Amino acid sequence: MNKELLSLVNKGEMLPLMEEFYTIQGEGFHKGTAAYFVRIGGCDVGCHWCDVKESWNANLHPPTAISKIVENAKKYSNTIVVTGGEPLTWNMTPLTTQLKAEGLQIHIETSGAYKLTGVWDWICLSPKKMKLPTKEVYAKAHELKVIIYNKDDFRFAEEQAAKVNEECILYLQPEWSKRDKVIPEIVDYVMTNPKWKVSLQTHKYLNIP
Question: Which cofactors, if any, are listed as required (predicted)?
Answer without folding.
Answer: Mg(2+); S-adenosyl-L-methionine; [4Fe-4S] cluster
